[in-house]
Amino acid sequence: MSSFEADRANRKAAWNLFERRLKQVQDDLAARSIGGRVADKVTEDALDLVDEALAVAKDNKGLIAATVAALLAWAFRAPLLDWIGERFDPQGPVQGEAANDDGADTSEEQAQ
Fold first, then answer.
1. Distance between CA atoms of 44 and 50, rounded to whole angstroms?
2. In Å, how far are 54, 55, 71 from 61, measured between CA atoms?
């Protein structure tokens, strides 16, 4: 057998292998579309991610509780600060200067 004949036999064998694989892929795609495969893969990956997140959450309950508490404190910081100020202020609520009941202005500018 010459090298030309050997090359031709190898090429035919490779072509037959390619055609069998192409037919297999075509049959497989006819049974189930690419979109269906992608949707199944995404769903499977999402479920794996949720399972992993739940496992991490079970292992770190205190850290998650502290994070949630910090986020809530930050979200409600204005009402919390107002409440703390009212609760612990020894002088009571801040008021403006007492108004003069007779309506007279007692500043130096008026006296001159």
1. 10
2. 10, 10, 15
3-state helix, strand, coil in the chain (%, to 5): 75, 0, 25
Closest CA to 57 of 41, 45, 68: 68
State the residue for tokens 């009212």: 86
d(Cα 72, Cα 68) in Å, to the nearest integer? 6
* Residue 93 near residue 86, CB atoms below 8 Å: yes
Amino acid at 45: D
> pTM value?
0.41
For 86-108, write each residue's pLDDT tens digit: 888 767 555 555 555 555 555 55
Q: Which helix (H) or strand (E) holds 17?
A: helix 3-31
DSSP state of 90: T
